[in-house]
Amino acid sequence: MSVFVRRHVVASTFASTSRTTTPCVTARGYASARKMAKNQVKGGVKESEPEPERKAGGGKRVGTFMPLSAAQLKHPLTTVPSKLEESPIFSAGALTRTSVGKVMQFSKPQNGVLKAYGVPKNLVVEFRVLSSPYSVVRDVTISTAELLEAASSKPSSETRAVITGQAGSGKSFLLLQSVEYCVSKGWIVLYVPRAINLVNSSTPHVYDERTRTYLQPEFTFELLRRFEQVNASAMKQIQITRPFAKGNKKLASGAQLSELIKLGTSDKTLAPAVFDAVLHEVARQTQRPVLLAVDDFQALYCKTTYRDTQFQGIKSYHLSLPRVLLEYAGGMRNFAKGAVLGAISNSSTEYQPCVELREALGLSHPLPVSPYLRRSPELVAYAKGLRNIAVPDTFQVSEAAALFNLWGQDHALHHRPTDEVFLTMFTAASGNPRNFVWREMLSSLSLSP
Amino acid sequence: MHILGVLLPENQLARHALQNFFGVGPMIAARICARMAIHDRCKVRELTQSQTTSLTAFLSSPSTYPEAKHVPLASLKFKAPAAKPLPTPAPTTNERKDTLLKSLKIETELKKEIKENIAHQRMIGSYVGRRHMAHLPVRGQRTKSNAAIAKRLNRIERHL
């Protein structure tokens, strides 16, 4: 059988933002295009199928926005320069109390975290529409930055926090801001944007006798590769203290960590062992603090879709990579300096926060929970000591206004950016950040009626 | 890819492609994939050589394929040793045995069993056998109308 370069694993496991220099995009509604073709193929003049009823709550179809190529941009509007380039770049130095309510763009993609690690699924389309990825600085951004600043001199077991909030309140954005903050401060950052891909049986798994867990070589390989890309300078400064030996690959102690990583990125079968060793060295060193950031954090505590050879479900803590993340989250392992930050996502109905996690974070349960319901002792242990960072459910008016102005300056709105339009959109969205962007501003771009 | 003469399209998910075998449906396919450590989103073109070999060995003779071994899993406080793995603990007596895959029949074996069942019904002179002989529905369906499938397919020497 021919060996395949598994690009699709990269594409599905880690999605990177597509960069465009212009705000002109096409809206692509796949389902409506297919319906149209079906009507035409059947021949004759056929009445178009009735439009689906708008869902209660305003479920307007937005479509998938793909950037146009430069050759297609012939309209004079597309040559107008965007003012987004003038907004400050998100960094630790630019983040002060006075910058609350300001819009900042993330670091340039060439060197950026977004390009290397990718972004959560619900942010991909949002980042495509504007000329450059952006975010709004909120109060909770500053408080999280202060928390991370305090954590930079303490072990990570003392700073283990989970970002929670209502759907669309900005949890993933806050986590992304925290990651960018730490990268700009020179931290070592390990970011997993879609932890669901660790537990949904989308990557190969193989049992390892030594660790008594199931390794995920391909996912670990990709994570290691991206880790090296973001933290290249730090890897050259750290020396390994434990000699590494696996198969016929050996590395003596005192070698640079970047050489160890190269072993893992050159051979997928070595990736899990190398990742383990790298994490051990990174946790031990005190030169730079370490941030472990995980989005879709609740998926680590859920049932996985993996099955063992006897068709029994494999628990998440029996998969090597989720187990490592859980051990750092639970405080069983810690970085000498740094923090562990997670963000819960409500997008997936299959991976909802479990009872143990909700109780540890003090969250309310959607349904009554019996006190006789058995709590898994392992999950209780992995969730013990987690701190809750609650994100406000709504934007402040100044924050929403800054975002609205940004869209106007980037020529991304089809309406004239007046106060009336802004207040209409803000009120219709009830201040919810996702609804404000998706249902109000993005929908104004949608070409479907 | 071909396994035992059956084409498994390269672009299909392995769990779906395995259903091209006569006698393998979604449940058995899921079990086979779990047995061979094939993850859910694995496509046929991504199967490794060892997985393909194991699949071929299993599907050629499911009853003689070695049973799945019990593997110990790390407990909460388990620390992996630096070099060699720890000795495997003895399996407990009340472990579940997988009889579903052990007694699996596919392709020719399954077709032979079906034909033998029909022949047995005829041999003992049962109602079911008589209905097969008469090319009529067997399970109490109406014959006043419909029954076209039964008239076409119900035979003693049924074509499978």
Automatic annotation (TrEMBL), chain A:
The domain of life for this entry's organism is Eukaryota
Its annotated compartments are:
Mitochondrion
A Pfam family for this UniProt protein? DAP3
Protein name, please?
Small ribosomal subunit protein mS29
Annotated Basic and acidic residues bias: 44-56
Q: Where are the annotated coiled coils located?
A: none
TM ranges are: none
Molecular-function GO terms, alphabetical: structural constituent of ribosome
Q: What family does this chain come from, according to its entry? A: Belongs to the mitochondrion-specific ribosomal protein mS29 family.
Which Gene Ontology cellular component annotation is one that this UniProt entry carries?
Answer: mitochondrial small ribosomal subunit
Q: What are the protein's UniProt keywords? A: Mitochondrion, Ribonucleoprotein, Ribosomal protein, Transit peptide
In its UniProt entry, the species of origin is given as Phlebiopsis gigantea (strain 11061_1 CR5-6)
Location of region: Disordered:
36-60
Which Gene3D superfamilies is this protein grouped with?
P-loop containing nucleotide triphosphate hydrolases (3.40.50.300)
TrEMBL record, chain B:
Q: What family does the entry list? A: Belongs to the universal ribosomal protein uS13 family.
Concerning Gene3D superfamilies, the annotation shows: 1.10.8.50, 30s ribosomal protein s13, domain 2
Q: Which GO terms describe its biological process?
A: translation
What InterPro entries has UniProt attached to this entry? Rbsml_uS13_C, Ribosomal_uS13, Ribosomal_uS13-like_H2TH
> Could you state one GO cellular component term attached to this entry?
small ribosomal subunit
User: In its keyword annotation, does this UniProt entry include Ribosomal protein?
Assistant: yes
PANTHER family to which the protein is assigned, alphabetical:
30S RIBOSOMAL PROTEIN S13/40S RIBOSOMAL PROTEIN S18, SMALL RIBOSOMAL SUBUNIT PROTEIN US13M
Q: What is this protein called?
A: S13-like H2TH domain-containing protein
- Its domain of life reads Eukaryota
**UniProt keyword terms in alphabetical order:** Ribonucleoprotein, Ribosomal protein
Q: Which GO terms describe its molecular function?
A: RNA binding; structural constituent of ribosome
